[in-house]
Amino acid sequence: MDFQNPPMMDRQDLRDLKKSIDLGFRDFSRAYGEDIESVFDPLLYFLVWLEKLLLATPWPVVLLVLALLAWFGARSWFVVIGSVLAFLLIGYFGMWKDMVATLAIVSVCTLLCLLVGIPIGVLMARSDRVQSSITPILDVMQTIPSFVYLIPVVMLLGIGKVPGLLAVCIYAMPPIVRLTNLGIRLVDKEVLEAAEAFGASYRQKLFGVQVPLALPNIFAGVNQTIMMALAMVVIAAMIGMQGLGQQVLRAVNNQYLAVGFMNGLAIVALAIIFDRISQNYGKRLQKHLDGGDD
Amino acid sequence: MTEASVEIRGVYKIFGPDPKSMVDLVKNGLTKQELMDVYGHTLGLENVHIDVAHRGIQVIMGLSGSGKSTLIRHINRLIEPTTGEIVVGGRNILEMTRSELRDFRRFGTSMVFQRFSLFPHRTVVENVVYGLEIQNIDKETIADRGQRWIDRVGLSGFENYYPAQLSGGMQQRVGLARALATDADILLMDEPFSALDPLIRTDMQDILLSLQEELHKTIIFITHDLDEALRLGDNIAILRDGVIVQKGSPQSIILEPADDYVAAFTKDINRGRVLKVGSIMETQRLLDGPQIERDMAIEDALQIMIKTGSTKAIVVDNTEAVGSVSLDKLVPALARPEISAGLKD
Ligand SMILES: Nc1ncnc2c1ncn2[C@@H]1O[C@H](COP(=O)(O)OP(=O)(O)OP(=O)(O)O)[C@@H](O)[C@H]1O
Ligand SMILES: [Mg+2]
């Protein structure tokens, strides 16, 4: 018995196995790639439309909307002024167009993650079986190196916006699912029992009690999803996603120090702005819990 | 007894992985301890029978863990019995379909909770009208009725506060208003006042009694406080380890406790103040002597008899003589009864 080398498949067989998987998937993507791609067309149109809209809007209007959003979310002059200033600087250093592209893709991704993730979280909270079958999938989504799933995505959909979008979503979706599930499960059992005692139906309990009481947690999930989407823009740039990430990638490839730093910092600025706005909004949602008056 | 609107018949509740198959064992005399040690199941309720008088206040008493919350939750099926029947208004509620049960909970019963269980994200008024919203009533009726109940429990001006901004007593007023707003006939109250300070608790009892005078609900009221039970209860049932050990009027429970457990509950009360002349009088009529109302406390009756220097008195019910009492009956009633050896366990 050889204790130095663990038992191993025959080299030839192994090569054949890998080859047949590759070929099989290639055939599959040749046959269905276009159909699958067309499924995502509406998403692509929406993304392109949003990007064009943002670019067509005069910059003072964009800043105004940003300021309003910041005020509505964070209720803090500091955040409002900080956000506007950051956007002005980004424009001043010539990154406006790339930033808009990044903004558009992060918005669309977040929206998609919420649309898909929140219902999944709700289902998980409803049944332990669903929870125990989805949790491992989420674990895989979060731990598998992003480059690995870029391969099949690119084979299937080629290079471009949609595959980038999908790659970002795979990475950014788990937090919103997990925190929706957690938030609903953490709702006080006694309060839920009260709703039950008054004859609330499943829907009335879900929308009237569970979701509102889970909102602070759901918002923490939204916040994390946005952050993770932003973190992915550089990696997604490798498969052709436009925006600040693309510039960072270009800088890495060509050793452009200034470009790299500027675009990197722009991403950080976006992250901080989004984080402050969504986090403060989430905090305000649970104000009723500590008896503060408003 | 008047028409019973809630009847609990032979209810067993066993907690554990396979309760159904444990029922026969318990019926054949397996004890709670054996059930736990040998089979790993918890005996929550054992062969409970209670007929709740229509429009009366039925108190259920027992120490912590005796199964009070478990029992009251059977009446609106928040907990399903392992076996037994629960009949409300002539209808076995265990046969209801899901939607019938939902309507029964919406229109037939309402509940007040020990830890209030208010909706923290809803304001006072939104909490009060919760049951009405669930019933899908129109907005104007909801607003009207909500305001009426808020005024009735003395919360006017606090409509837009959140529960966390209110004191415990005020929160439970919200809980009470929320339960009353749906106009359900049956009110389930699981230790509603136990979490409150003694003074506030007395206040809340007053509110409940005055409401009951005009509303005449069928109330099932849980408490572990005998004073509260005596004050509110038309009938009292005492629960011990899931078994009803005694049922009866408050007076009979004090006068004839069924066992040590019940006697322990009653030992600290002021018997002279709680016991009524009517419950120890003899039916033999007297011709002369001072007159005493039948629901006068023994303490006060003694006072009158000592003042007038008589050893006997006529017991009257609205000036009509219904019986008599003598000092040698009144005085022993003040002493705690001996537990007869046969009833001890
Ligand atoms: N879901 C459950 N699973 C297992 N055992 C339970 C369950 N619910 C209640 N029990 C047990 O049943 C018994 C009665 O509990 P219950 O809550 O009805 O008591 P209680 O009289 O309301 O007490 P308290 O005064 O503390 O509220 C307890 O021994 C408890 O451990
Ligand atoms: Mg209890």
How would you sum up this structure, described in words?
The complex is a heterodimer of chains A (294) and B (345). Chain A is built from 12 helices and no strands. Chain A is mostly helical and 294 residues long. Chain B folds into 2 domains: 4-248, Rossmann fold; 271-333, CBS domain Like. Chain B contains 15 helices and 13 strands. In chain B, strand 4 and strand 5 (91-92) form a beta hairpin. In chain B, helix 7 (139-152) packs across helix 8. Chain B is globular and about 65 Å long. The two termini of chain B are 30 Å apart. The model of chain B is unreliable at 341-345 (pLDDT under 50). Chain A binds chain B through residues 188, 190-191, 193-201, 204, 208-209, 212-213, 288-291, 293, and chain B through 76, 78, 102-107, 109-111, 113, 115, 117-121, 130-131, 133-135, 162, 164-165, 182, 188. The structure holds adenosine-5'-triphosphate and magnesium ion. The site of magnesium ion has 4 residues of chain B, from helix 3.
Feature tags:
A: MetI-like fold, 2 domains, 84% helix, globular, B: 345 residues, alpha/beta, Rossmann fold, six-stranded mixed sheet, four-stranded antiparallel sheet, binds adenosine-5'-triphosphate, binds magnesium ion
How are the elements arranged and paired?
The complex is a heterodimer of chains A (294) and B (345).
Chain A: H1 11-39, H2 41-56, H3 59-74, H4 77-92, H5 96-126, H6 128-143, H7 146-157, H8 161-185, H9 189-197, H10 202-237, H11 244-254, H12 257-285
Chain B: E1 4-15, H1 23-27, H2 32-39, E2 42-53, E3 57-61, H3 68-75, E4 83-88, E5 91-92, H4 98-108, E6 109-112, H5 124-128, H6 130-134, H7 139-152, H8 168-181, E7 186-190, H9 198-215, E8 218-223, H10 226-232, E9 235-240, E10 243-248, H11 250-255, H12 260-266, H13 271-274, E11 291-293, H14 298-308, E12 312-317, E13 320-326, H15 327-333
Parallel strand pairs in B: 3-8, 3-9, 6-7, 7-8, 11-12
Antiparallel strand pairs in B: 1-2, 1-4, 4-5, 9-10, 12-13
Helix pairs in contact in B: 7-8
Bound molecules: adenosine-5'-triphosphate and magnesium ion (MG).
